[in-house]
Design a protein that fits this description.
By secondary structure, this protein is mainly α. The chain is built from six helices and no strands.
């Protein structure tokens, strides 16, 4: 049941990307182009998703566990530290340069998109780099 639910949620997310057009990097870059021809549609997509995700987080937090009883994996701290700022900056710069974030990149892999393949390779390299950095700094 757990995998069926995960598949259904992923399918709904993919349909949402398709309907909203957010799988297309030019659409996302249009949102980020504040000085040019700004496209506010991504703001509407995010604004529409916010109430649903907020309700889901409230319910999960009150229950203290995920839908099928798994433990919640929430950050241990709410502190804004250099690691968070650096990671958010790297993610934001990558998103701004490519117009793609992980969800749409995986969606675009289904179309054998070259840019999605490059993005996924860069994402994997970044994750591996983080793991190496984290292990090196944890030993100190």
């Amino acid at each position: 049941m757990k995998y069926t639910t995960a598949f259904a949620i992923g399918l709904i997310f993919g349909i949402g990307l398709l309907v909203s057009g957010m799988y297309h990097p030019a659409k996302v870059l249009g949102f980020l182009d504040l000085a040019g021809k700004w496209d506010p549609s991504l703001a509407f997509v995010m604004g529409g998703a916010l109430p649903f995700s907020a309700i889901g987080f409230i319910i999960a937090h009150r229950r203290g566990k995920a839908l099928f009883g798994e433990p919640l994996h929430l950050p241990p701290t709410k502190k804004i530290d250099p690691r968070l700022l650096i990671g958010a900056t790297i993610f934001g710069v990558g998103w701004g340069l490519s117009g793609v974030c992980p969800g749409p990149a995986i969606f675009n892999l289904g179309f054998a998109s070259g840019s999605a393949l490059v993005f996924i390779a860069a994402l994997g390299a970044g994750m591996a780099g983080y793991e190496m950095f984290d292990r090196a700094t944890a030993k100190r």
